[in-house]
Structures are given as C-alpha cells and as structure tokens.
Amino acid sequence: TAPRPFPWEPAQQAAGAGWAAPPLAAMFADGTAAGTDVESLWRSARSARCEAKSCQTGKISTVETAAQSHTCRDAGVQTDQSSDAVQDFQQEVQVDYTSLLAFLQRVEDAVIKELNKNWKSHAFDGYEVSWTDQNETVLCLHTLSYPEAQDQNLQVTGISWNATGSVVACSYGRLDDGDWSAEKSYVCTWNLDRRGLKPQRPDLVVDVPSSVMCLAFHPSRPSLIAGGLFSGELVVWDTGRTEDPVVWRTGMTDDTHTDPVYQVNWLPDGKHRSHSRLLSVSTDGKILVWREERDGRLALAEGFAIVAQQIPRSAQLKKLAWGEAAVGVTSLSFSHFDPHLFVVGVEGGYSLKCSAAAETLALPRTGSSVPLRAPAELTFSPHGGPVYSVSCSPFHNLFLSCGTDGQVHVHSLLQAQPLVSLQVSQKYLFCVRWSPVRPLVFAAASGEGNHNNRFCSTGDVHLFDFEKSSQKPALSIKQAAGERPVYCLEFNAKQTQLLAAGDAAGTVRVWQLSSAFTEQGPRELNRLEQLANETTD
C-alpha cells in the first residue's frame, strides 16, 4: 500500500513517480493565520438539560442504602440457647396442680359468696365512664360589652343562646328608675366560635327606639331573635339581614300590651309546622300568643289574662288581698312534660299553675280582637315580695321561683307548699334557671354577694348542687363589683359547659363550668325523685 502523501506532495509524485525533497526554506516559513472561533456544542447541550458543566461524561447514577438485604431481624441473643437454660426455664414454670386444686376447694365458698354480693349490689348503677379531661374549676371565658350602651348607663336586661349554641345575644335597657321609654337601646350578638372575637365589638348591633326588656332566639332557626320592648311591642329580627333586620312586629294596636313586655317565648304552631308562634308576658296581666303574617305583622292569635277574682284560693293559704284588677305577670315557664301546662310568677308574690287549654273567659271583657281566657288553676305559697323568675325542671314536675325576698322556692306542681325554701340573699334575686343536663343543679342571679356585710355588695351567680347540699350554694361566682346586680342568666343547652350572665354594668360574662356541674352522677334522677316525694304525702 502506497504511503499517505503529505499535503505538499504533488499528486503525481504521490502516485509513485520519483521525487526529491523540497528545500527547507520552502517547508518552513513564518506566517500569520486569521483567528478562528470553535463553539462548544457539548456545553450548550448540557446547559439546556440543566446538567453540570464541570464534566464531559454522562451523569453517573448513584443509590444510597443502609443495607443491601431485603429483610431484617432483631435479636437480643445471637447465639443458640443452651439446653441447660431451657431446662432451668421449664423447671421455673412447673405447677403443683394438686396443691392448687386443694387451695381452690378451700376458698370456693367464700369467693362465690362475695361474687353473689357484688352481683346484687347497685353501687355502680348509672355509672358511665367519662373519657374527656376533667375540668375542676369555673373560668370566665369571655367578658362581652358594647361601649356605646355602657356610655348611656344601659343595663343587660336579657340573654339568649341561638339554636347552635355558638352565638349569644343580649338586650340593653333599663330596669331601674328613669325615663326608660325615651332612651334608645340595642340588641347585640357575638359568635363565640368565630376567630378573632372582639369582646367590645359585637358582630351585630341593632338600634331599637325603645328599651328592650327581654329577648329569645328561635329554637331551630339560628338567625331569628325576638324581643319585647318597654313600649309593649314585640319585634322579630333576622341577624342575617344587616341592612334591615326587622322581619315582624306587632306595632301599636288595640291588641298590643299596655305595659312593658318582660318575657318572650317561641311556641310551635300546631297548624303549620314550618311556622312558629310567639308568646309574650307583661305586667298588664296579659299573656298573648302571636302569629306571623306575610305583610310583616304579628297578629294576635289567642291570649290569656290573669285577673285577681279568677285566681283559685287555696285553703292552706291566706286570703289574697287583691282587688278585681288584672295581676301583673313578670315571668313564665312551660312544663317539659305537658305542652299545655305552664307556671307564671306575678307581682303579688305568688306563682300560679296555668293551663293553655282553659276555656273560661277572663273578666272583665277587654277590647281585644280575640277573647282572652283565664288560665290559672292553682296558687302556690307566696314569696315575701314580687316573683321575678320561674323555671320548670327538664327532668321532673318541679319548678323554681325567686323574687325580691332573696329566697328560692323549689315547688312540686302537685302541691301549694314548697318542698324547699332557700334564703340565698338579703337582697333581690332576679333570675333562676335549672341546668339542662344536671337534674340537681340550678343557678340563681342576685344583687349582692356577702349578705353578712352590707358594705361588700356585689352581683353574684350562685350555683346550687343538691347532691352536695340542699341549703347553701356549691359555688358563688362574683360577676360585678359594687351595687351592680346580675339581672339575667342562661345555660347553653348545646355547649352545656357554658353559662352566660348579664349585669347592671352592661357586661355579659360567659362562664365555663367545671365537670362537677355538667356530668350527671349515678342515681341522680332517683335523688331528684326522692326530693319530689319527701313532702307530697
């Protein structure tokens, strides 16, 4: 094979012809060549693929692993167990069955006797294990207020929880002396489950031209709330409507109360399940039931009147020193066992058992658009002054009453005399409520704290637990300092550890109750039954 010709070799010489080497001067000579630029293709390609530029080789795959085997096993001892150790272990677990049988035969009668005693014991009847953390203290979770109402020296006159138990509402007005009707007042709501709760900035503020004396949330529609005014009117607001929250109102008609409305209650409508009726109580002696109209009016559906001459006289009670006029009604509570049965408290100091099924017409006839009936069936033993609050038990045919004599009476609906009379305070008691979850627990709101010291007077919330004592409160909580009574309180039926109380300082405090006040004990219902039967014979 012919050698490869150099570039300077003529083609014909490379083909095999003889040739002579060129002179050295022709082979090597000085010269300057133009510069050239060679682009690196591998760098641009790797850069586009986000690869490292410090190496021209391909990416090396690596794997990190703690072990190369697929299975692992832990062992405390890596050596085989000796036969001596196995023999020693077997010797340790040997049982003398003959002696064991003799022992069981000796103690059999005693064990069977004790098991039969335990089988017949009722020590743990009704006991339920609680897996939740026990809360042993009562704490103030929230202190709520509306500064503009406090600047007007308005008081909290009513409190209510909505159907979900997450929203608390209060009404502002005046329960002491003053020109109440000329003052502007408010209804305020706070959602306690909302993040960023601002205690002095309510979620909703409704301006009302007259003092609001009471209020009540709808039992199943969380946004509806009804209020009774000093003017005698009833108003229903929808808290979901911020522009114009008024949904229904009575207006000022011949059917409207002529005195302030001190309590409102929602009632189911027997004819229309989707509708509700509204009951109102006033010191004009009337108990009125209102129905909703499409034009935004509340129209009178039926009503009752408490008239002195139609109140039953009990042989065990002194003759009532009332005239023939209407008797002012201050409070009302329905029985949880009979939808037609309710109890009212009146200014004369008495509590009355009433029936919504009464047919006797009230006297004298009034100018009402519907005939009013006389519902009173039984008069209970009186307090030493006006009755301000009554509350029926959710667990039995019992009710509580309190008033200006500072006493709480525990009554059976079957007899006139009280089962228990408790002197809670030397000043007024304004509100009393049964617990919705503890049959033997109730709360009372007072205008003073330590009745043994007249100069240390505060508004208190008293919590009674008859399982611990039937004579004194299990706990008294100081709500308001100075001469500032607590006017209203309400248990939360959904979030049962919460209790709200409103006072004359314009403040609503939400208390978290300890588990001792919220968890029903064994045989507690039996204890309540015993209390109810103690003096009814």
TrEMBL record:
<dbReference type="GO" id="GO:0042073">
    <property type="term" value="P:intraciliary transport"/>
</dbReference>
<dbReference type="InterPro" id="IPR015943">
    <property type="entry name" value="WD40/YVTN_repeat-like_dom_sf"/>
</dbReference>
<dbReference type="GO" id="GO:0097014">
    <property type="term" value="C:ciliary plasm"/>
</dbReference>
<keyword id="KW-0853">WD repeat</keyword>
<dbReference type="Pfam" id="PF00400">
    <property type="entry name" value="WD40"/>
</dbReference>
<dbReference type="InterPro" id="IPR036322">
    <property type="entry name" value="WD40_repeat_dom_sf"/>
</dbReference>
<dbReference type="GO" id="GO:0045503">
    <property type="term" value="F:dynein light chain binding"/>
</dbReference>
<dbReference type="InterPro" id="IPR050687">
    <property type="entry name" value="Dynein_IC"/>
</dbReference>
<dbReference type="InterPro" id="IPR001680">
    <property type="entry name" value="WD40_rpt"/>
</dbReference>
<protein>
    <submittedName>
        <fullName>WDR34 protein</fullName>
    </submittedName>
</protein>
<keyword id="KW-0677">Repeat</keyword>
<dbReference type="GO" id="GO:0045504">
    <property type="term" value="F:dynein heavy chain binding"/>
</dbReference>
<dbReference type="GO" id="GO:0005868">
    <property type="term" value="C:cytoplasmic dynein complex"/>
</dbReference>
<keyword id="KW-0963">Cytoplasm</keyword>
